[in-house]
Amino acid sequence: MIFTKGENKGMENNLDFTIAMEDDFYSVVDNEDFLNKDAEAIYDYLCNKAKPIPFCDYLKRYILRKLNRDVDVNFFDLKFYQTYIIQSFNQNMTPKSFTETTTKTAMITKNWLQQASVSRKAIFLLGFGLGMTVDEVSEFLVKVQKEYDFNMKDPFEVICWYCYSHHLKYRDYLRIMNRYSEMFQISDGHEFDSTVTIKNSFSKLDNEDDLVERLCALKNENNGKHFSVTTRMCFDKLYDDVREIIVEQKNNDEEEFFERKAALYLDRIENSDKIPFEEKLQRASIIRQSAKRYTVSDITEGDVEKCLCCGIPFDEKGNLVKNKYSTLASLFRNKRMSRQHIRDIIVGKTDVDRFDLITLNFYIYAMRNEKSAKQRCFDFIENTNQKLRGCNMGEIYLANPYETFLLMCMLSDYPMGTYSDVLELSYRQA
User: Whose CA, among 64, 106, 108, 288, lies 20 to 30 Å from 5?
Assistant: First the structure.
């Protein structure tokens, strides 16, 4: 748990990249100057210390753990890791690709050991080839790739999950996949179950026949799309809460504006003998009542964009300046809550990921939680982790620079102000 400092013991911890990230995190938030120069301190940390850990380093770390080698990932050369992967794949009778390819094995393994990111299918293949457990594959999906866990609505991923869970080999995967492909689709009434419910139903299956039969029901689901209903419901709830906050802000601004307008009018006519006192008050009341009352339905994707992307400048066309002009773009994987991104989620063009849920919840806690900075951060972490677990996603992870950034902002006196200032600095200095 964050905020609990302790000794790091054991080989696993020595090879865990989060240790260094935690040390850097504390060095920033525990500094006496943090509250006075929070935005500058956070921006400096992000630029100089919060380097994203590439996939290849995680893969090397995994291999070292298997070999019980307590050394830095750069201690051995590329050939050492290539040899291990190739031998393991041969031992587990796993091909170099799920599909036919002319690319040489040496080149494929070299790419894995040099790339910052790989495809989800590459991770599933490595799961078979390296003999990973289901938890190890899950860690690569969530912590390394920073994506969602096994998609229990995707038959391919379910079959992989079943194989890892039951310590089955690649040949078993092929057999199950072939059986599934040859069966007609059926419906068992579970098409719209939540991801968690579906996962629990699969967990109770103890034989391959029941698995294949249950998988066939997924062929009907959501017209071939494997989007998570649970995750989308969580997004919708958070999105509505964000819009409620924006409504409150807009209504308060409206009331303050027309209250000032009424006050100025009363000052102007105060000494007029031609207007009775009661009429003066009535006129002022009419001015106050002119204030618009916003509802959630009035709040557009553009309104949300202005709040969640505050600090990012706009171009002459009213669009957010491109990501490439931010010094933090690559660190945050070019993600941001633009109105187009929000619209794509709403219309079902793209799925919801952990970035979306964490960002929305950050805004809610930053704007509504009036507790101390430390308690506010604790509450945010606990609530966000609960939501992420419910959506089959990993908990907040300090090795993810963007998530560390949000926690640092949450520990400042004014989280959204700090958040905005850091983003503004990134474009000012790009």
Answer: 64
Let me know if residue 354 belongs to a domain: yes
**Do 289 and 197 share a domain, yes or no?**
no
The domain boundary, picked from 189, 224, 259, lies at 224
Neighbours of 38 (CB within 10 A): 25
End-to-end CA distance of the chain: 34
- Label residue 90 by pLDDT band (50, 70, 90): very high
Assigned token pair, 9: 């013991």
Q: Does residue 326 fall inside a structural domain?
A: yes
Structural domain containing residue 172: 152-224
- pTM of structure: 0.79
Top pLDDT among 172 and 282 is at: 172
Per the structure, how many domains does the chain have? 2
Q: Is 224 left (phi over 0), alpha (psi -120 to 50) or beta?
A: left
How confident is the model over 236-253, as a mean pLDDT? Answer: 96
Maximum alpha-carbon separation in the chain? 100
Task: Tell me whether residue 206 is exposed, middle or buried, using C-beta atoms within 10 angstroms of its C-beta: 0 to 12, 13 to 18, 19 or more.
Answer: exposed
Contact by Cβ (8 Å): 29, 21: no
370 CB burial (10 A radius; 0-12, 13-18, 19+) = exposed
332-371 per-position pLDDT tens digit? 888 999 999 999 999 999 889 999 999 999 999 999 877 8
| Residue 198 Cα distances to 177, 195, 227, 236, angstroms | 19, 5, 13, 21
Residues 197 and 241 in one domain: no
**208, 224, 240 - which closes a domain:** 224
Rounded to whole angstroms, what are the CA distances from 64 to 12, 75, 113, 313?
10, 10, 13, 45
